[in-house]
Write a structure and sequence with these properties.
- The complex is a heterodimer.
- By secondary structure, chain A is of the alpha+beta class.
- Helix content of chain A is 34%, strand content 30%.
- In chain A, strands 1-2-3-5-4 form a five-stranded antiparallel β-sheet, with helices on one face.
- In chain A, helix 2 packs antiparallel against helix 4.
- In chain A, 36% of the residues are buried.
- The model of chain A has no long low-confidence stretch (mean pLDDT 92).
- Chain B is 43% helix and 30% strand.
- Chain B is built from four helices and five strands.
- Chain B starts with a strand and ends with a helix.
- The chains are: A alpha+beta, B alpha/beta.
- At the A-B interface, helix 1, helix 2 and helix 4 of A face helix 1, helix 2 and helix 3 of B.
């Protein structure tokens, strides 16, 4: 971190593995990001990213993902030189590292386009940082956004 | 939650307005209605997404299905989107803005759908 003012804030949230709960989590996340001084554009990107990550857990995590809470951890770091917000989504579903999935080419025509499989493209576009680890039987996907505070 | 409504403009154009968040919960509540409205034999369709807060991939999938339906019966689909919104970011990130015409104004979208 640079010289001068520095602050680090963390907050946790847990939800059940349903579509309605995923919406509740994204509403919480958007409000928490804005309340902690994250700019609107970065807050919007991270909220959309969270919706996609949670949708992937619900659709592909299997039975185990639906039987345990999904955790969200929000960390915001602010100093005079940069801001960074990180969100960790953890779930008990089958191990899946989205970073190992090759990036799909964008469809060139409507006939080529498929209604599914666009979530990872959105996650990659929305996140300035993306990390994955599998630990203690849970997936931990970290995504974040960075910005420069106004001078 | 998400809402969907429509009105017919003359014989050849249907305008559909969707608002809310098109995530898993939102898409579940409007996708089947959107599919019905697109399948009706009105020739062309404009979908107004200016009231959408977040457009997740499941919502984009619903739009692609709708565009294919309209195209299959010889019509045209156009979208109305605020270009500074996260909805535009979702469309650009997935390349869908290159597949379905996107307009800032409803009147431009209607003209394009009827052309």
């Amino acid at each position: 971190m640079g010289n001068g003012f520095s602050a680090s804030l963390a907050e946790e949230f847990a939800i059940g593995a349903t579509a309605v709960e995923a919406r509740r989590a994204s509403d919480w996340l958007e409000a928490a990001l804005l309340q902690r001084g994250v700019p609107q554009a970065q807050a919007a990107r991270l909220t959309l990213c969270a919706l996609e990550v949670l949708a992937n857990v619900l659709a592909h995590g299997g039975k185990a993902a639906h039987e345990a809470p999904i955790g969200l951890l929000l960390e915001v770091i602010l100093d005079t030189h940069h801001g960074e917000a990180r969100v960790t989504v953890s779930d008990a579903g089958r191990a899946f590292d989205p970073l190992t999935v090759p990036e799909r080419a964008k469809p060139k025509t409507l006939d080529e386009a498929s209604p599914g499989g666009m979530g990872l493209a959105l996650i990659r576009r929305c996140a300035d940082l993306l990390h994955y680890r599998h630990e203690a039987g849970r997936n931990h996907l970290v995504f974040g956004a960075r910005w420069s505070p106004p001078r | 939650m998400s809402t969907i409504s429509h009105d017919d403009i003359g014989q050849d154009l249907r305008r559909i307005v969707i608002s809310g968040t098109l995530d898993t919960a939102g898409a579940n509540s409007v996708a089947s209605r959107l599919s019905e409205l697109a399948a009706d034999p009105k020739k062309s369709v404009v979908i107004d997404l200016t009231g959408i807060r977040f457009l997740a991939s499941i919502g984009i999938g619903a739009l692609i299905s709708c565009a294919k339906t309209v195209k299959a019966r010889g019509g045209k689909l156009a979208l109305v989107v605020d270009h500074a919104s996260t909805v535009m970011m979702s469309l650009e990130a997935t390349g869908v803005d290159q597949l379905i015409p996107v307009f800032k104004s409803a009147s431009d979208a209607e003209r394009a759908a009827l052309a």
